[in-house]
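Dig into these lines:

——
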Amino acid sequence: MSARSTEQHTLEAGAITLPGVLMQALTHIGPAVGLLFTFQAIAAVTGTSVSLAIGIGGLAMSLVAVSVIQLSKKRSSAGGYFSWVSEIIGPRTGFMVAWAFLLFEPIGAGINLAFMGGIIESILQSTTGFYLPWWLIALAGSALLTVISLFGLKLSIAVVVAMGSFEVLVGLALALTGLLNPGDGGFNFAPFLPTEAVSFNGLFLGVVFSIFTFAGFESVAPLAEESANPAKTLPRAVILSLVIAIAFFLFVGWGVLVGWGTNDIASFISNGAPVLELAQNLWGPWWVLVLIAFINSVIGIGIAVQSASSRVLFGMARSGVLPKALAVVHPKRRTPTNAVLLQSFITLIVSIGGGFLLGTQGVFAFAGIVTVMLIIVVYISGNVSVWKLYRKTYPSEYSPLKHLIIPIASSLLLLYVGYKTLFPLPTGTNAWAPIVALSWLVIGAIIVTVLSARGHLGTLERAGDAMTGATATLDDPISDEGKPITRH
């Protein structure tokens, strides 16, 4: 392969450092989106003990993060989980992980844009009488994401850092104001107390709901090739993003509930937008900062999704699983231009099409159920991979706690979350969500089975080899064929 050809399929190494990777993970979690809607959802099942449920849920998700940290120390590629599982478990399982990813991750920006459009349309009409269709808002957001993504990861991350910092500061300021101006119940620590939960089962349901509040930290994995010193940067970003997110939601949940009034939790649950109303009561006209933080959060999530998804599409194309055109890199900006454009098209279709078909809130709920089911498959595959990698390839570094007990514990927890998501079965349109997720996995399994039966498994094998061969092994030498030479 010529130098120019290689350059056309190579991302910009070292484009982002720890602060940028950290904010990619934190923004993908979406602090302001959680601020506006997560607390109310958890309170509906838990009662006042929202911060306690969030704290336990954050610790539970930290178990999942252990596998991401351990894998990213040894393997680095734009394919993320797909690369890890393809190399460590096998191309068949790797393809299934990629197949799951291709449904839940790329739609993240679109569903949030549709949701944001509906919220802004409603607020503008109720407060000013001005009608701005939600789909125009979603369209503008999609265009903005495309432009930012095309101009390179450095710009994308710079915007993410600025936006993420703003929404965190707004959330902290609102919580502090609430603590200084408590509602009915006064200043107290009730949100941290198990005795304030409606029941043990309610508290546990709140924990289940809160676990996926922290999903998104793993979005740093596909940025490995463009990160400075990814073997150290990625694990640190995962740890710091979770610590910051847990601390943020603990403090802000406490401040919001105390500011509203812990003796009046019923009205908090029944209110259409309690956090916005609280901001209006505490800040007057400056409540709009919370709305801006929400918009900011949605755009930040969109940028994070665009960056992560386009890199995986790029990696799969470079490996031969997707058309080679998606592996083209811009000669100056070193961004996967065609992969970004495809991701932007997906965002546009999901936001506009999904919003009209299911409603701006309906598409958000529907996609949430699908995402939970598919991301569980991905996370558990990663847990199996970390055990096999360290047990077989790095036996001297194998730890029963980090590489066996914790992965098993987090896998069991994830399976329980999946069970609680499905039972009792969703109703209405959402009843189709589990069917969509399962059908998607069945189609992927059929593809793998057919390719295997016809002796065409080479495509899947090339996927694993090529995607892990890019920067596959951080501490192993690379052979002339571009494959890692494993030390034993």
Q: What stands out?
A: Residues 86 and 94 are 4 Å apart (CA to CA).
